[in-house]
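[recover] target loaded
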């Protein structure tokens, strides 16, 4: 398992190689953000009602002759103009390409602000590339369904 510093260094190189056209990415996105508000769970904390969304992104490419798979998870809680996010990063083996936290947790990498920012920058680069040339990045987007189970 890679340490956060190793992943950070690798992502910096991958970002630059992607900009130079040396890496072709395959992305799979599952999000609840476009679902009807009535379908989204609401959590009340200290009298504030938070609407909850989640977004998984699977990043896959060949890098230096090796398969690279990273899955990110973001939980987005919204209350009016307030937004709170929780980010998680996973480096699972290739056989585990599922968007289920319990299965991904053993492959978690400690997230830092720097690492989250690097992944966000890569995401923005890939979106810009996709917009400029739809064939440059393969992207599959699907709607997710978030169910929060009571701990009762």
């Amino acid at each position: 398992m890679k340490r956060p510093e190793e992943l950070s260094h690798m992502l910096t190189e991958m970002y630059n190689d992607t900009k130079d056209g040396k890496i072709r990415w395959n992305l799979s996105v599952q999000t609840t953000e476009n679902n009807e508000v009535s379908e989204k769970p609401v959590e009340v904390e200290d009298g504030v009602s938070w609407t909850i969304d989640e977004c998984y992104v699977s990043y896959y490419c060949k890098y230096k002759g090796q398969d690279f798979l990273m899955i990110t998870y973001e939980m987005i809680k919204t209350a009016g103009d307030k937004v709170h996010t929780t980010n998680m990063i996973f480096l699972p083996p290739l056989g585990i390409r599922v968007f289920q936290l319990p299965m991904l947790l053993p492959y978690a990498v400690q997230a830092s602000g720097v690492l989250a920012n690097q992944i966000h920058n890569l995401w923005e680069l890939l979106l810009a590339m996709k917009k400029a040339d739809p064939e440059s990045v393969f992207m599959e987007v699907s709607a997710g369904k978030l169910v929060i189970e009571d701990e009762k």
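[recover] notes: The radius of gyration is 16 Å.
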